Every structure is written in C-alpha cells, then in structure tokens.
Task: inverse folding
C-alpha cells in the first residue's frame, strides 16, 4: 500500500511539472478510473471466490445428500428383501381360494424331483376355471414324468359318481348353469381360448367337462411314471405333496362353493398329510371301473 502511495505521489509531481492543463486533467481522470476499476475488480474477484466456495459447498452437500439417499434406498431394499424372505419362510401360509391357488400348486409340483403325491377331486384340476394355470400345472407334471421311468407321481381322484357331484357342487347344478353361461370364464373358455361350440344345456356342459377329464386321464396314463387311482369316497382335503418337503392343502367349504388353500413346509403337517394320503391310496383301486359295487358272494353256512 505504501508503494502505491509513493507511485501516485511521484506521478502527481510529474503532472505538476507538465505545462498542458488538459493533459493533467485527463491523466488524473485516467488514474481515478483505473483506481476504481482496480477496486471493483478486487471486489468481483472476492465475490467470485466466495461464489466458487459456495458452489463447491453446495456440490459437496448435494453429493453427500445423494450418497445418503443411496444408502437409505439400499437399506430399504435390504429390509424389503428381508421381509419377503420372512414371509416366504413362514412354515404355513394362506395362498388364496380356488382357482387363484394354481400358481402355488404349480410351484410345488415343479419342485418335486423324487416323489409327488396328489389327492384331488378331478384329474384336470382347474382346466376350466383357470386354463392358463392348468397348462402350467400339466406341463410341470409331464416334465417330471419324463425324467424317470419308475412310478414317481401318484394321483388319487374321485371316481364317478363323486366326480359328477363335485362338478355339480362347483357350478350350482342345472339351476346355476344359466348364471354360469353369463360368466367371464364361460365366455373365455368356449369363445376365446379354445373356440369350442358352447353348450346350451347343463347336461351338455357337464358331459363336455367329463369328456375333457377323460382326455387328460388317457394322456397322463401314457406315462410309466404316473399312477392314477380312484376313490369312491369324498376327501376331507385336497393335497399336493412334493418329496415330503413342501405341500399345498385345500379345504372345500361345503355349502359355500369355495375352496381355501394353504402352502406349508411344516414337517409335522406334511407327515400327517402323507399318512392320510397313504391310507387313502391303499384303500383305492387303480381302475375306475373297479370301484363299482361288486355282487355279494354267497356264504355257505356250516351245517
């Protein structure tokens, strides 16, 4: 600062020596203007420096905030995965009513690699109410059956007339057929998915469904790995048990036209269901006609 004052002092002395007053005035104006510019330049430089510091601080804060948000998002994702894992690891859980249970049934069937036991009312379970789910179900059954030559899939289903009673209970009999004809599943099945001529009477409807059951029975009977037996008695529950490790079980709510389903990994439940299946399996013959009532043999009384 002293050097600057000394410079201006020498400059003024030089100007005083000058004989041209205009030159002196212009020189003074130039000096003042230069001083002002220098001052403003200093202010701008300081302001620019301050702005740069603020910008850097803001950038750091933004990066820190973004990093914190990323950490929080990862923590939420981890928590969500843990919650899903907890839900999935629950030993027994409700999986919905029929036919929404088909997804879990397909998953359980697909998990089997040694033994699959099925106890259900109809062989082509869900083929009318959930055609897409049924296709996955059958595909999984056939894929498993192709992997092994020996019997690894045992299927226990209703023989007639219980199979017919099950169909009548599901659709409300002849009285409920008129409403069934108006339903979305009737329209999709007959007019959209398969384009079959839709039945106009209840008898035609049940005959068609029975025919489809027979078609699928003949198809599955072609596999050595699949054995089918027929029960002359109603089941307390429907079962799909894979390798004695995981199962789906379903209960029919009689009088409410509703089937509720659960999926379980509970070892005690699965062992109990397995024992129920084994008992029913041993009680049932391998051919549907063998469940017909046989004539009573005469008994010779000893004299």
Result:
């Amino acid at each position: 600062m002293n050097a600057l004052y000394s410079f201006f002092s020498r400059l003024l002395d030089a100007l005083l020596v000058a004989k041209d007053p205009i030159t002196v005035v212009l020189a003074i104006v130039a000096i003042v203007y230069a001083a002002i510019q220098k001052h403003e330049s200093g202010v701008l430089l300081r302001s620019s420096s301050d702005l740069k510091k603020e910008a850097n601080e803001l950038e750091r804060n933004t990066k820190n905030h973004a990093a914190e948000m990323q950490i929080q998002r990862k923590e939420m994702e981890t928590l969500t995965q843990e919650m899903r894992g907890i839900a999935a690891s629950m030993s027994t859980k409700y999986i919905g009513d029929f036919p929404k249970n088909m997804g879990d049934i397909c998953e359980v069937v697909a998990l089997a690699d040694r033994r699959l036991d099925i106890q259900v009312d109809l062989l082509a379970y869900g083929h009318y109410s959930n055609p897409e789910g049924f296709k996955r179900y059958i595909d999984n059954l056939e894929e498993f059956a192709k992997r092994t030559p020996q019997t690894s899939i045992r299927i226990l289903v209703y023989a007639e007339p219980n199979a017919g009673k099950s169909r009548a209970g599901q659709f409300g009999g002849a009285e409920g057929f008129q409403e069934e004809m108006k339903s979305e599943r009737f329209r999709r099945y007959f007019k959209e998915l398969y384009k079959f001529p839709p039945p106009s009477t209840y008898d035609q409807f049940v005959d068609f469904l029975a025919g489809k059951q027979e078609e699928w029975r003949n198809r599955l009977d072609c596999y050595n790995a699949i054995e089918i037996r027929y029960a002359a008695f109603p089941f307390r529950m429907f079962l799909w048990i894979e390798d004695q490790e995981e199962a789906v079980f379903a209960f029919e709510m009689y009088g409410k036209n509703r089937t509720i389903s659960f999926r379980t990994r509970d070892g005690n439940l699965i062992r109990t269901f397995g024992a129920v299946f084994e008992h029913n399996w041993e009680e049932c013959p391998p051919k549907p006609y063998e469940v017909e009532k046989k004539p009573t043999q005469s008994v010779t009384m000893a004299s």
Q: What stands out?
A: Residues 176 and 182 are 10 Å apart (CA to CA). The chain has two domains: 2-59, 92-289. The two ends are 148 Å apart (CA to CA). Strands lie at 92-97, 116-119, 153-158, 226-231, 238-242, 246-253, 258-264.
